């Protein structure tokens, strides 16, 4: 991914560095992700992250400023690095591709733990919540055209809220992750996609006038 430098007014996560700056950012974000996955949001400390990433503490404080600034940038980077949407030619196929990607991410030991930590932090930290909302806004926006294309093909009614369909497809997987000890298997991902597609075809997500 090619990155360029943003202006001085940019907040955490908005700069797009190159060269050494990119390597520093990658090392710091990797260290932050490791701590989140292993110990949770409460144990994030900028000085510790700098030590783990083997970069200057001053650099970390100057660039990210706070733990929530660092988490914001981490989620931005994850959104940017996420696999782009898959177009299969059918709504169900596209939604299964989406839920399959979500399942693999959440079932991954490191990624699943990281998301649990950020979701937990978002319940009590407004800035962490804002960062999490931003991450999902990017991912939902990426996949929404699948539903819009389905509407154009006549698979779902006109006026179907594409963003709501995408959220509905992955929601059961997050519920399963956060409220049960059941495995996140392919069958669960396929059921979630099938249910969302059926509801969309039935008009459940048509926007109200």
UniProtKB/TrEMBL annotation:
Assigned keywords, A-Z: DNA-binding, Transcription, Transcription regulation
Taxonomic source organism: Streptomyces goshikiensis
InterPro entries: Homeodomain-like_sf, HTH-type_TetR-like_transc_reg, HTH_TetR, Tet_transcr_reg_TetR-rel_C_sf, TetR_C
Region feature Disordered, mapped onto this chain: 1-21
Keyword Transcription: yes
Protein's name according to its UniProt entry: TetR/AcrR family transcriptional regulator
DNA-binding region: 45-64
Pfam family name, one: TetR_N
HTH tetR-type domain location: 22-82
Source taxon at top rank: Bacteria
Entry keyword DNA-binding: yes
């Amino acid at each position: 991914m090619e990155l360029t430098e943003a202006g001085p007014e940019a907040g955490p996560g908005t700069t797009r560095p190159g060269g050494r700056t990119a390597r520093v950012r990658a090392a710091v974000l990797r260290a932050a992700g490791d701590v989140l996955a292993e110990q949770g949001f409460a144990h994030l400390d900028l000085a510790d992250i700098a030590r783990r990433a083997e970069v200057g503490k001053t650099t970390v404080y100057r660039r990210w400023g706070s733990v929530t600034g660092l988490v914001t940038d981490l989620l931005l980077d994850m959104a940017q690095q996420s696999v782009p949407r898959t177009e299969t030619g059918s709504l169900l196929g596209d939604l299964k591709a989406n839920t399959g990607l979500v399942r693999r991410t959440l079932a991954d030991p490191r990624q699943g733990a990281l998301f649990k930590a950020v979701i937990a932090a978002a319940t009590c930290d407004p800035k962490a919540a804002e960062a999490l909302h931003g991450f999902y806004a990017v991912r939902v926006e990426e996949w929404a055209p699948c539903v819009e294309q389905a509407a154009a093909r006549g698979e779902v009614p006109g006026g179907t809220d594409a963003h709501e369909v995408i959220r509905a497809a992955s929601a059961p997987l997050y519920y399963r992750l956060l409220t049960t000890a059941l495995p996140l298997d392919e069958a669960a991902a396929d059921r979630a996609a099938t249910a969302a597609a059926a509801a969309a075809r039935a008009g459940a997500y048509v926007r109200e006038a």
